[in-house]
Amino acid sequence: MNPFRKSLSLRLLGIFILIALITIFLIMHLFSRGIGSQWKNNIQPHLIQYLSYVHNDVGSPPNHDNALALSERLPVNIYIYRGKTLEYSTNGKPLDHQSIHFIATANNRKREKPPRDGVPRFKLPLDHTFGGREGTSYLRVMQNEHTLYYELQRRNRHSRLGNQAVWLVVAIGGILLGSYFIIRRQLSPIKEIKQGVSLMSQGNLQHRIPIKGKDDLAQLGDSINNMAERMDNMLDAKRQLLIAISHELRSPLARSRIASEMLPDSVNKQRIADDLQEMDKLIHEIMESERLQHHTDLHYQLIDLEALLIDVINSDSDAVELNINTDHFMMEADDARIRIMLRNLINNALQHGRKDQTEKIIVSLDKLEEEAILSVTDHGPGIDAEHIEKLGEPFYRPDDSRTRSTGGFGMGLTLAKRIVDTHGGNLTIDSQTTEPSGTTVTVRIPVKRAH
Predict the structure, then answer these.
(1) Measuring CA to CA, which residue among 447, 436, 437, 433 is closest to residue 374?
(2) Domain extents for the chain?
């Protein structure tokens, strides 16, 4: 994946680089235009005048000794041609004067406009022409049968430019690297805010984002902390109210059960007894689910999961096939809560996962490294994919078959999932609606308690 799409720091740095490049381009463009104007109006006439003075010192006809003396004192090479033949050069080399582009200067034109500032310009004689090649300036002077070329030398130009370019690259690299770390440090609270929001969205509303400073990001983190605190207080109030209501319902429920026992035996009496039993079970599951909300109501001890599993399915041994695929082991867990979780999963499979009473559900126990793996598999009609993610929600019914007539109110799987979560494990559901149809609930719980 492109790192610029993931990192805000890199995107900001890229924006700064783009702005810097555009700014540099504009400055260089304006600077080059200004330099060009200064060259034409101020620098070039002085350079031409300087070379004219040198030419006067060479003499007429040209004196070789004077030319050599001038070349040794000044950064100028002098070439003296008689016709097309090189007569003398101060560096002992000929000049490729055919490749030099000589032009008439503004001061050498016959119809010269008056200077704008009123200061008279130096006028180049008609037998003088100025030219250049690859950054080197030349003056050509026609003198009777001689033609003299004056070359302004630029010593170590490329080496100086090379060193400057290296230092420029190093400096720019250092500036960009420093800028990146500064930007990253300034935006570091975003990472902490992202992690905090992720934990809160997973249900950990007690987590608080660390606040550093008083800038906009600190204010954002503080606002999120306040929101999480208010949500946690509201949910806690809801849990306390739900537990209180469930507890209060047990008194009239107990009185109703006693009163029903005094009724004469009949079909209606049995229905009332069944309804009261279901209500009592529902109240118990609601209270258990809410107590486990903060993961603080567990009583850890060493339990024999294999023996516990055999004890749970003992009453339904004719309808359950047990597969133990691991050696005997002990695990740290809450015995009562694990028992509730196993009973709910097995009862759910027995009620909804059998096409007829002769089919058996399969309960398997494995151990992989430090995890106990329990799976409950049935061969029922299966569950559509769009319903699987919502099966852990309280009272959720994926279809009309999950009604009171089948003995389910939708809290059993919710409570089982919450018990698994409080033990630091996870519960997954895989289902297939096409033949061979069926559903498998897999539970993975750490063998040792996480401290």
Answers:
(1) 447
(2) 3-155, 159-186, 298-446
Position 405 confidence tier, pLDDT thresholds 50, 70, 90: very low
Task: Tell me how many degrees the CA angle 398-403-407 measures, rounded to the nearest 5.
Answer: 115
Where b means 16+ CB within 10 Å and e means fewer, 242-264 reads ebeebeeeeeeeeeeeeebeeee
Q: Are 221 and 196 in contact (CB under 8 A)?
A: yes
Strand ordering across the sheet containing 136-143: 85-89, 76-82, 146-152, 136-143, 128-133, 101-103
Q: Tell if the pTM clears 0.90, that is, is over it.
A: no
For the domain covering 298-446, report its CATH number: 3.30.565.10
Tokens of 92: 């002992």
Per-residue pLDDT reduced to its tens digit, 61-120: 889 988 888 888 888 889 999 888 889 998 888 888 888 888 754 444 444 445 554 444
320 beta partners:
361
Question: Three-state DSSP class for 216?
Answer: helix
